[in-house]
Amino acid sequence: MTAKSIIRIDSAPPRHWVGDGFHVHSMFSYNQDAHLYSPFLMLDYGAPYLCEPRDVASGATPRGVGSHPHRGFETVTIAYSGEVAHRDSSGGGGIIGVGDVQWMTAGSGLVHDEFHSPAFSQAGGMMHMVQLWVNLPAKDKMTKPGYQAIKNNDIPKAAIPEATVDGASVRIIAGNHSGQSLAGSIITKGAASTFTPMNVWDVRIHAGQTVSLPQPEGWTTLLLVQSGKVTANNGKAAGAAQLVMLSRSGTEVSITAFEDTQLLLLAGEPINEPVVGYGPFVMNTRQEILQAVEDFNAGKFGQI
Ligand code: MN
Questions:
Q1: How far apart are the C-alpha atoms of 116 and 82, rounded to whole Å?
Q2: Ligand 1 centroid vs 37 CA: distance in angstroms?
């Protein structure tokens, strides 16, 4: 197996506010080098932060992001600590709790809001979350909106030899993990269904352990280190709030933890189509963006 090499390691830029409730590092966005990150469009990282109630509520009102539209892609919200409440124009809504994932397909368009949950905004506490934007191929951009509410307990753990000594765990949010046991090869299927092939894995590795997590040849491969310190394929070490980009060529991804580490592995087959975006709309042409703005202004995205 040829090892994927490290292309770059980026540290988190300063935090910025999304709405008045989510203080995140934008690790990448489609405004810059979109082709390098495809099929992923954006990664907002809410690094662990101990919130006082005043950080997450304004008086009795939870802080967050009020009603806003999306079209042409998917938003994936992963809550590691804290809770996010959401409502959308299809009538759906709920709470994304600790360990849960919401995989929302904006498709042809919806309107939603995202706030800290009432309970969390009253009590405060540790907030740690990720919002990932995943592109849709042109043929699916106008698909019917919907979402997959994935509970912590519904996310399967991969069969990896390292896990038998409690050295590591890999939660398969999306994609397929191919592992080995005494009984032979075991495929673990991820909880979320996706439009294009990708792996979204929540990886924990204990200090001193090495885990092999091969990714397909040609795929974009990224590691968001959330805590700890690791090296991928014996390259330069990366620590908390750093994003490692590996080469598309090669398949081996061998990760050694120097400290207890948590990281998010994102890998996907690039979508080789033009990316033209304007804020919450990401399409293939400028004409489609103008159409999205027009449709939203005409109320065609519905309301909450
Ligand atoms: Mn949103």
A1: 8
A2: 20
